[in-house]
């Protein structure tokens, strides 16, 4: 059996994280290695989907909730302006294969999101 993802371990409160939003189906935390002044990560509580395409095909309502949560967090942390980034696949820099989105704002001129 595969090791639990870092997001599963955060959900299970096995590793610390600064949680900024939580619903029955979505969790959002501060990124531990921020690439911008505002850098949050939002992910579904299910590990069923490895990337955003799988999530969109399998549960579009959950994807919509994830995006809505991102907007709410951007409203709170970044005056509503944000970049929402999904890395999909190893060649795109995805290293955690539990779908998640990066919410970034401020100082984004040279932001790179490789390695997650």
UniProtKB/TrEMBL annotation:
One of its GO terms (molecular function) is catalytic activity. A motif (Histidine triad motif) lies at residues 98-102. Residues 6-113 form the HIT domain. This is HIT domain-containing protein. Transmembrane segments: none annotated. It holds the Pfam family HIT. InterPro entries: Histidine_triad_HIT, HIT-like, HIT-like_sf. The active site is at 100 (tele-amp-histidine intermediate). It comes from Orlajensenia flava.
